[in-house]
Amino acid sequence: MNIQLDNEEWQAGSTATLGDILTDLSERAHARSRIVTTVMLDSRRITDRDLDPHLLEQPSTHYRELVATSATHEEILESARGAIERYRSLVVTEGNSLANQFRMGIQDLSAFDAWLGKVADAVEIIENDQKRLGTQSPGNAIAGWIEQLLAARHIHDTVRMADLLEYEILPRIAA
Hints:
This protein is an alpha+beta fold and 175 residues long. It folds into two domains: 2-71, Roll (Ubiquitin-like (UB roll)); 79-174, no CATH class. 61% of the residues lie in helices and 14% in strands. The chain has six helices and five strands; from the N terminus they run E-E-H-E-E-H-E-H-H-H-H. The protein has a five-stranded mixed beta sheet. A hairpin with a 2-residue loop joins strand 3 (35-41) and strand 4. Helix 3 packs antiparallel against helix 4 and helix 5 packs antiparallel against helix 6.
């Protein structure tokens, strides 16, 4: 089987399984500080969902070629920048909607709880991006405000919840 990773090519040993080949492929990418991003096996795209024990045990002789591409962590983040910004915007938009509902006295806590999960994801994305750039992380500042938001939720103080969202939390996520 012919194997290609970016511009590097080699032949698989006759006793190698697909699992062996994929392990080698990953190690070669890792040695160059890269992450395998796509794998094509005989012109069929393979994803992580396809990687089951049966496929991994298949002998390489059953296939003609495996072509893979890789990228650096920074390249992956840069390619995801648009999606990250859209996600941030979505979290802020939903947060503004919740703040407006709280100001009207509506307490939809199930929607609020679901939104908090999105906030956790957004904060993690923001922190990872800021670490990569070597800039100050807003995570601790947001975490303190989230604690206050949860305390206000506990006593059903929807005005305080709306204020915390509008003036403290959402501006930090949007930044």
